[in-house]
Fold each of these.
Amino acid sequence: MSNGLLKGKRGIIFGALNNMSIAWKVAEIAHAEGAEFVLTNAPIAMRMGEINELAEKTNSKVIAADATSEEDLANLISQAQEILGGKLDFILHSIGMSPNVRKGKHYTDTNYDWYHKTMDISAISLHKVLSIAYNSNAMSDWGSVVALSYIAAQRVFPDYNDMADAKALLESITRNFGYQFGKKNKVRVNTISQSPTMTTAGSGVKGFSEFVSFAEEMSPLGNASAEACANYCVTLFSDFTKYVTMQNLFHDGGFSYTGVSQEVINKFAK
Ligand SMILES: NC(=O)c1ccc[n+]([C@@H]2O[C@H](COP(=O)([O-])OP(=O)(O)OC[C@H]3O[C@@H](n4cnc5c(N)ncnc54)[C@H](O)[C@@H]3O)[C@@H](O)[C@H]2O)c1
């Protein structure tokens, strides 16, 4: 069912790798709600070719951009405005990658070149996107930028490794740039802190499927799906959330405020 929530809105969607990606679901729902957008991903991710299927389905163009390259991002942001015929109303930053996680390097024995890459790809890329959009006046007044985060920014989840530090930085950039962009032209910037979700990035974390089950039993509403996350993103791009900015918004079925659940206590019953 569509309500035309994003009718007439133009945007850029980063991070649709395959049909499990949160960004993929956002693209499908944003399209159904009337948005027009450009899809983008790292050149290496394009090789899989799946994004072209999404582009066809959502009647959108694809522009490759490595989110760590200022040159690629500047080109993307200017081309997207040309293709869409005006300034941008929304941007989804759905990007995360840690070489330390991928290669099984423990947090206490981190490879610092990889650590820098984790920060650059997963957090500083948001600063770069915002800075280029800000300085080139690419966003419409009352536009909206959403990035995806995880509760490891606030609480310790040992196997999340250096991604926890990246998410803390991502949320800090959201607050600080949110202030600047709000002052400049009422652009809002928020993060959504999503439940663990079975995607390519998610399942790269050690012990992920056990962790999904744990979170499911700890959350009164159960884990939020990728589709539910996409619905939430779309509300934040819509005009119904105009005064929400600089926030980290938990979208986790209540996990973040649950100390312990009866289901988890029962597992310790003698
Ligand atoms: N899956 C989860 O459990 C979960 C939970 C909370 C938050 N998140 C966050 O959601 C976001 C999306 O992840 P997902 O779970 O949909 O997984 P995903 O693997 O489908 O998406 C991650 C995306 O990042 C892209 N990417 C990596 N390096 C890039 C670069 N240099 N330039 C441009 N793009 C690059 C990948 O190509 C991919 O499309 C990430 O920020 C992730 O940390 C995921």
Amino acid sequence: MKHILFTDLHVGLNINNETWYNLPIKAVEHLTRTARRKNIKSIIFCGDFYHDRKELSVKAIDSARIICEMLNEFKTHIICGNHDAYFKNTIELNSLQTIDKFENITIVTKPMVAYEKIGLCPWSLNYRELNTPILMGHFDIKDFKMNDNTSSIHGEDIKSFKDYKLVISGHFHTHSKKGNVVYLGNMYGHNFNDVDSTRGYWIFDDESLDMEFVEFEDSPKFIKVIDMDFVESKIKGNIVKVILTKEYSEQNIIDYLTKLNSLEPLEIDVDYSRIKIDDVQMDISEDINISSLDEKQIFHDYLDKITIPDHLKVKTCKKIIDDLFTSTD
Ligand SMILES: [Mn+2]
């Protein structure tokens, strides 16, 4: 039998932004279309349906309703993840109660067996009683990739799962595989830890244990642009972080950002903090006694020797220095 597997929707992520409410809806539209086309009857979700553990916005609840109405066309299991639970170490109080009213959707808040061979286990509960060849859940296992840059250092040992033929998990958002354990990876990147990576969902055959990846392309990508070096086709609809490492004139930066904006990114964020200002070599002969110089004069000399950005005037800078000295007199 075939199933569609997906995980970590995090409905309600980036609470004030319409795109982020539409994204999980578009993602589920995509996978339900695939299920219909391939005549797949079962959908299993591996945890973290909602994003915020403490409170849900009206918009998040409404997005969840739209998503569940689509999933209800199939036999769907939604496993409770850590983000769905109010407390860290127990899922007793969880937000999935808001979607526990659809005829064909089973909310998994206790370990259970589905289709005779698949054990389903929510966050923080004991899976060991599930004597099935396949185990799915929301597990915290050591030494797996958490995102594109870091791996988990805490969590359970992979050896605890050795009795299962295959373990499939949500929780870490980057896809990875080690031994008999597979982390699915989420449907779309959530932040700049997810730069340039491919995201989507899986078609799983519970007899052959084959997993086929289906990319969900219709999501904003996180793109980093260093200085002014960018590929025009990568900007549209994406979240762009421009990291400036060199000095540019104000006009230069305005022209550049206007050009970038005309390519219709979803968001642009400019990081000015990494601009390198060249070390200034003061040419002071050894026989000058600095302490004898006027402090104001030292600043003026300094300003004469350095190259300041085009949009600043040396004269204005000197005036500011003078004013500072006057005000502290
Ligand atoms: Mn998650």
